[in-house]
């Protein structure tokens, strides 16, 4: 059983602890909960491009990726940000540097009311700056439709924070960390945990290692929800060696017939993989070495510098080569900054960006060569619907150039997949390993999403599979048991089943901590406050207050202070010159037999009850008084109520009788009588011959009778009887000693045990 008070607080990291399960049967307050987790694609829902997936749970919001659509330009390329309130987004987690995953980030951070934090890996941030800067320069849109400026990009960079693989971070109650995703340098899969529910977002990932990158990792923890790409649907890729052999055959077919081979790629990512393949192939085929290979990108040199910087994030083969020579310093490949620098006088191979022929060098070269049958273009990656690369994959008879002219398409068009996405086999293997109960498919066109959904539903019957469209939410109910960590002083004890634990239940970031109130400052920033009360009560110098108090209460400590500051106790007459409190505790039986020690220069007597209630009796003052100080609590207030009644309604002659042995019943009757008068005002109370208190009306009619044990022996009004029973319980709480072994005076336990 668990008793607690629940403030909200922020708590620090906690040491080893005990786990205590809150029993719903005994405590019906929200300890078993049901909450909706919502996943909404703002982009990449039944499409490839403008990846932006919003996760919402327990009042927290996380946006996975923030990209643009390569088939559109300007505002039309953005995710559907108007469907959300950006100010409510706590985190943006960017998986990698491709524009369809990060291209809208400067717009989101600088042109909306987003106030959260942004995280990505080190290589992603470095390349993000280069690619977005180039994107601003080459964007072919009107200035009014421009998404962001160079300054917006620089401002967004200041807001980006870095994260390493496996580094656990926390923000506003959201825990998150990332794993290597393969795909491109620095690509990450993000695991997010909110209130114990884990969601894994893969972004673009590949389980298959290639020439320079490792395959995607397997998470050490299984997610409750897996958000996974479906780019290639149910396609199964060919083996790496077969794919590389087919690629080099495509290239050599074009150059051996005297043509120009165009390979449109993104500036970073698959380009480096293809460059490694071609450089190695040219090295082993001397008959091709007279044919130049160009890497045509304005970012080529800067990009290669970044790859060399993060060589430690690549596979063992590349790292070993780097110990001998830099594998990204190519022997047979040259950089080409622009078409003007190119001498088009024979067969060659040019790798140019961007990868979908939207604009830039790759589009210029395509339009220059597309009418010559000797030439060829090889599409090595995924092409989004609506792009020029996607259109020519169907080998149309004509194409429309940038100037509006329509010309025949005579050059050969070949496709091969080097995009480092997951195929059906990789996705199924990954799901078999992590075993998520819920699977959400994104980043795939409608046909591929539908096919993969059907395949996964057939294979993984225990999991639910979703394929939402843009702005369509998937809602999943999660229920679980809440647990409280018992820390500090409470954790020092060992508990058995059904033991009672009393403390303060601290709620912070979906965690519950059960603490002694004295430990609050150690585990939170909660300030623990108390109310200290002081009361000055006049005394009758003829009443032995000390003896009365010692008779009524247990755990009484007595000090005698002289005018010069000396402290003496009743156990000896030797004075002690000290400013420390010196006390003596006696048993209840001994207190009634020992008379207090008196000193000629005694200034005051200080009585402390259970170390909590302090009573200073100043009997030598001109006006004798008692200064009572105590920390306010229900138990302490009851003690002080009893003391005040004892002082205010004391009578020397009566108390002298009370202090005699055998007069306890008379004392109780007297106290009950005085308290009834105090509670009900001016009423007539008298002691009957049979030692009962009688309350009478002006006509001398007896209204009720109360025995010395507080039992109501006569009361005609039933409503009055119920009210009197409550009053009598309070009277007895004030009158009788409160033993400390029951814990009634413990500051952390305000439960009163009445005997």
UniProtKB/TrEMBL annotation:
Where can this protein be found? Nucleus
Q: Which organism is it from?
A: Naegleria lovaniensis (Amoeba)
Extract the PANTHER family matched here: CLEAVAGE AND POLYADENYLATION SPECIFICITY FACTOR FAMILY MEMBER, CLEAVAGE AND POLYADENYLATION SPECIFICITY FACTOR SUBUNIT 3
- Where the record annotates domain Metallo-beta-lactamase, the positions are 49-259
Q: Please name the GO terms that the record assigns under molecular function.
A: 5'-3' RNA exonuclease activity; RNA binding; RNA endonuclease activity
Q: Does the keyword Zinc apply?
A: no
For this protein, the record's InterPro entries field holds: Beta_Casp, CPSF73-100_C, MBL, Metallo-B-lactamas, RibonucZ/Hydroxyglut_hydro, RMMBL
Provide a GO biological process annotation: mRNA 3'-end processing by stem-loop binding and cleavage
Q: Name one GO cellular component term.
A: mRNA cleavage and polyadenylation specificity factor complex
Location of the Beta-Casp domain = 271-392
- Residues covered by region (Disordered): 564-595
Which residues lie in Polar residues bias regions? 572-590
Recite the UniProt keywords alphabetically. Answer: Hydrolase, mRNA processing, Nuclease, Nucleus
**What is the name of this protein?**
Cleavage and polyadenylation specificity factor
Is Nucleus set as a keyword in this record?
A: yes
List the SMART domains.
Answer: Beta-Casp, Lactamase_B
């Amino acid at each position: 059983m668990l008793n607690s008070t629940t403030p909200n607080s922020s708590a620090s990291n906690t040491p080893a602890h005990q786990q205590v399960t809150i029993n719903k049967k005994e405590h019906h307050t929200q300890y078993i909960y049901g909450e909706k987790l919502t996943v909404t694609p703002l982009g990449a829902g039944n499409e490839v491009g403008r990846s932006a997936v919003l996760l919402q749970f327990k009042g927290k919001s996380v946006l996975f990726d923030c990209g643009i659509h390569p088939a559109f330009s300007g505002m039309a390329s953005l995710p559907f940000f108007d469907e959300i309130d950006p100010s409510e987004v706590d985190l943006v987690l960017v998986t990698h540097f491709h524009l369809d995953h990060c291209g809208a980030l400067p717009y989101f951070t600088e042109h909306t009311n987003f106030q959260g934090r942004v995280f990505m890996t080190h290589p992603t941030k470095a390349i993000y700056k280069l690619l977005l800067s180039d994107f601003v320069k080459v964007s072919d849109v009107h200035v009014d439709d421009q998404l962001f400026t160079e300054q917006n990009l620089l401002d967004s960079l200041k807001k980006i924070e870095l994260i390493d693989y496996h580094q656990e971070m926390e923000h506003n109650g959201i825990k998150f960390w990332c794993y290597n995703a393969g795909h491109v340098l620095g690509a990450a899969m993000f695991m997010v945990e909110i209130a114990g529910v884990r969601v894994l977002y893969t972004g673009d990932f590949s389980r298959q290692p290639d020439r320079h990158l490792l395959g995607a990792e397997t998470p050490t923890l299984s997610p409750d929800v897996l958000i996974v790409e479906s780019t290639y649907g149910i396609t199964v890729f060919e083996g790496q060696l077969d794919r590389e052999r087919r690629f080099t055959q495509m290239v050599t077919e074009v150059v051996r017939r005297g043509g120009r081979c165009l390979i449109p790629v993104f500036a970073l990512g698959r380009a480096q993989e293809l460059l490694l393949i071609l450089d190695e192939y040219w090295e082993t085929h001397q008959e091709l070495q007279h044919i130049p290979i160009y890497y045509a990108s304005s970012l080529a040199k800067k990009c290669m510098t970044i790859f060399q910087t993060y060589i430690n994030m690549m596979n063992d083969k590349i790292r070993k080569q780097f110990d001998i020579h830099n594998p990204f310093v190519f022997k047979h490949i040259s950089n080409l900054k622009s078409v003007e620098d190119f001498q088009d006088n024979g067969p060659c191979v040019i790798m140019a960006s961007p990868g979908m022929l939207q604009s830039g060098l790759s589009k210029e070269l395509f339009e220059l060569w597309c009418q010559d049958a000797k030439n060829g273009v090889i599409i090595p990656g995924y092409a989004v619907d609506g792009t020029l690369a996607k259109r020519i994959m169907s080998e149309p008879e004509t194409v429309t150039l940038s100037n509006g002219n329509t010309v025949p398409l005579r050059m050969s068009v070949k496709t091969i997949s080097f995009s480092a996405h997951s195929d059906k086999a990789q996705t199924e293997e990954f799901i078999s390993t992590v075993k998520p109960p819920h699977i959400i498919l994104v980043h795939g066109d409608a046909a591929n999403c539908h096919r993969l959904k059907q395949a996964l539903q057939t294979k993984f019957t225990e999991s639910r599979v979703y394929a939402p469209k843009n702005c369509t939410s998937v809602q999943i109910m999660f229920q679980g048991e809440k647990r409280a960590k018992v820390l500090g002083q409470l954790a020092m004890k060992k508990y058995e089943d059904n033991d009672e634990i009393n403390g303060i239940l601290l709620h912070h970031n979906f965690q519950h901590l059960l603490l002694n109130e004295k430990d609050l400052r150690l585990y939170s920033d909660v300030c623990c406050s108390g109310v200290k009360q002081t009361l000055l009560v006049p005394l009758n110098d003829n009443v032995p207050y000390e003896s009365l108090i010692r008779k009524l209460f247990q755990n009484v400590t007595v000090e005698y202070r002289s005018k010069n500051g000396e402290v003496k106790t009743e156990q000896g007459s030797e004075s002690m010159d000290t400013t420390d409190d010196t006390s003596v505790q006696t048993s209840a039986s001994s207190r009634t037999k020992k008379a207090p020690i008196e000193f000629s220069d005694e200034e005051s007597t200080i009585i402390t009850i259970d170390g909590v209630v302090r009573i200073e009796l100043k009997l030598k003052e001109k006006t004798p008084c008692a200064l009572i100080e105590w920390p306010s609590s229900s138990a302490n207030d009851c003690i002080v109520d009893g003391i005040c009644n004892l002082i205010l309604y004391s009578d020397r002659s009566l108390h002298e009788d009370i202090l005699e042995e055998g007069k306890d019943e008379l004392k109780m009757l007297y106290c009950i009588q005085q308290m009834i008068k105090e509670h009900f005002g001016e009423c007539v109370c008298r002691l009957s011959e049979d030692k009962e208190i009688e309350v009478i009306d002006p006509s001398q009619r007896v209204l009720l009778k109360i025995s010395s044990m507080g039992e109501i022996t006569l009361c005609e009004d039933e409503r009055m009887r119920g009210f009197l029973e409550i009053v009598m319980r309070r009277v007895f709480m004030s009158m009788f000693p409160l033993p400390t072994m029951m814990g009634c005076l413990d500051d952390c336990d305000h439960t009163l045990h009445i005997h």
